[in-house]
Design goal:
Elements lengths: L6 H17 L7 H17 L2 H5 L9 E9 L4 E7 L4 H17 L8 H20 L3 H10 L1 H11 L4 H29 L6 H7 L3 H18 L8 H8 L2 H26 L1 H6 L1 H20 L4 H20 L4 H32 L15 H14 L6 H16 L1 H26 L6 H4 L6 H19 L2 H4 L3 H12 L4
Antiparallel strand pairs: 1-2
Helix pairs in contact: 1-2, 1-5, 2-4, 2-5, 4-5, 4-12, 4-16, 5-6, 5-7, 5-12, 6-8, 7-8, 8-10, 8-11, 9-12, 10-12, 11-15, 12-15, 12-16, 14-15, 14-19, 15-16, 15-18, 15-19, 16-17, 16-18, 16-21, 17-19, 17-21, 18-19, 18-21
Length: about 500
């Protein structure tokens, strides 16, 4: 079958094509048609990624579903795609969330509907390109291109301060990426004129150059994660973004930074990765502990979950830089779980905001009296965010803590505080919003979630519980790739 050898291209270009078709529907008089085309494109975009999982060989770390064609011959730039056990899950995660985001905005978005839906479809394809690229210049093109739809989503459909938040998001991420471009040009010259990422993994560069390359990559990837202290753009972006924007930002876009460390920083600069691991671990632990305390102080639900995301992503970078299989696999599982849980929490907050038009915790109270079904779903997602065993939130955190303990007891001790702080800020928010007597007339007039919202939350609840109870389908994909990466990084002169 002709499509079987082009699954990655389909995963990238099919959503983009449907995004263009949605744009062609024109103005809001054709909004129903735009919604239907967007949903068809989003579902097809997800379906074409399922054969990637079904046909994936778990016994090899080699790139699979490879496509390699000439693109810009003069500079030896190729359209080179492929996935391994690290990148495969993120393409699935990204494509999984696109239909949910389209469905979530079905009734809420009433102006510029076609443009809104098209932005998410186009971004879905671009992000798949980031995870599938094996050519450094192709990666960089996709990396920068994904800023544009998110900039528009925040700037056009966001809150009162949307322009400020969109510009801050764009400048932080763009400026961070410029040094990465310098590093890629150096690697291109050092490799004899190649942009092949896998070639960079094996060619070896001097220690001083490794440190400079590592720092260049760090400026790009740390902003995307985001790591302390370059995290301040994220709460602003989340607060101002529409619900769908917050979902994709938390569930997908934060993952590309951590993915960059695994695809570029560790294999290309292994000596520098070891030498600077102490700094990375320190910044990660600051994110886990300090940002967890900052989340406790928030009065805005979206801002609280945004700071929670920074704290949880600190777990991811900690797991990556302790250089053992428990930590690295825990980090990857944490990224997938965080996608499910944070996406679900932002959708839940969006449900309340659509009805009350407030994100302030103080404006709620007693919601369970009027929205019992919603309260049950929200409770599950809050527990998962707190790391409750049996939910996806526990799996990755537990493995990272085990891996951290093998590296240093105090790393594990500080990392484990997230189980306390996470429960504190998440359940305290839940208690003030959901329980107690009906607080005001706004809450008194609330109605429970619709069938459309029940479908979205049911799907996410199944993924959160399924991954928590049986994580093997997620973890077995990455075993061989993670082990080979650790072996490669261990061959260091440092």
């Amino acid at each position: 079958m002709i499509f079987a050898s082009h699954l990655l291209s389909l995963a990238i270009w099919l959503p983009i094509l449907f995004g263009v078709l949605v744009l062609a529907t024109g103005n809001d008089r054709n909004a129903p048609m735009a919604r239907m085309i967007a949903m068809v494109g989003a579902v097809l975009g997800f379906l074409v990624t399922l054969p990637l999982y079904a046909g994936f060989d778990k016994m090899t770390s080699a790139m699979q579903f490879v496509e390699n064609y000439g693109w810009i011959a003069r500079f030896n730039v190729n359209y080179h795609l492929g996935i391994d056990g690290i990148s495969m899950l993120f393409i699935l995660l990204n494509s999984f969330f696109t239909p949910l985001v389209v469905l979530a905005g079905w009734k809420v978005i009433e102006k510029r509907v076609a443009q809104y839906m098209a932005a998410f479809l186009i971004m879905s394809g671009i992000v798949n390109g980031v995870f599938a690229s094996l050519d450094a210049m192709l990666f960089y093109v996709f990396w920068e291109a994904m800023l544009i739809p998110m900039f528009l989503i925040i700037g056009v459909w966001g809150g009162p301060n949307r322009v400020y938040a969109a510009v801050k998001f764009f400048l932080y991420t763009l400026l961070g990426s410029l040094l990465m471009l310098v590093a890629l040009i150096y690697l291109y010259q050092h490799s004899g004129g190649s942009f092949e990422i896998l070639k960079y993994h094996t060619m070896g560069i001097p220690m001083t150059a490794q440190i400079l390359v590592f720092i260049a990559f760090l400026t790009a990837f740390s902003v995307k994660v985001p790591m302390f202290p370059v995290h301040t753009w994220l709460p602003d972006a989340h607060v101002e973004a529409p619900t769908g924007g917050s979902v994709i930002l938390a569930a997908i876009m934060l993952k590309v930074g951590a993915y960059g460390f695994l695809r570029f920083s560790l294999p290309i600069a292994p000596d520098a990765s070891h030498k600077l691991a102490g700094v990375m671990i320190a910044l990660s632990l600051i994110a886990v502990v300090y940002i967890g305390l900052v989340a406790l102080m928030q009065s805005d639900m979206k801002k609280l979950v945004a700071y929670s995301s920074i704290s949880h992503m600190g777990f991811v970078t900690l797991g990556i830089f302790i250089f053992n299989a428990y930590g690295m696999e825990g980090a990857l599982l944490q990224m997938v779980s965080h996608g499910f849980v944070s996406g679900a929490l932002f959708l839940a907050i969006g449900v309340l905001y659509d009805r009350v038009h407030s994100r302030q915790i103080a404006d709620y109270g007693g919601v369970a009296n009027k929205m019992p079904v919603f309260a049950a779903f929200f409770m599950l997602f809050a527990m998962a965010n707190s790391g409750l065993p049996g939910t996806s939130g526990f799996v990755g955190e537990f493995l990272v803590i085990v891996g951290a303990e093998k590296a240093n007891f105090w790393f594990a001790f500080l990392a484990a505080t997230t189980l306390i702080f996470g429960a504190a800020y998440t359940l305290w928010m839940y208690k003030r919003v959901i329980f107690g007597a009906v607080a005001n007339d706004h809450v008194a007039h609330l109605s429970d979630i619709t069938l459309r919202e029940k479908v979205i939350f049911s799907i996410l609840a199944l993924t959160v519980l399924g991954m928590g109870v049986y994580p093997l389908p997620f973890s077995e994909i990455m075993h061989v790739t993670v082990n080979d990466l650790l072996v490669h990084v261990a061959r260091t002169k440092f």
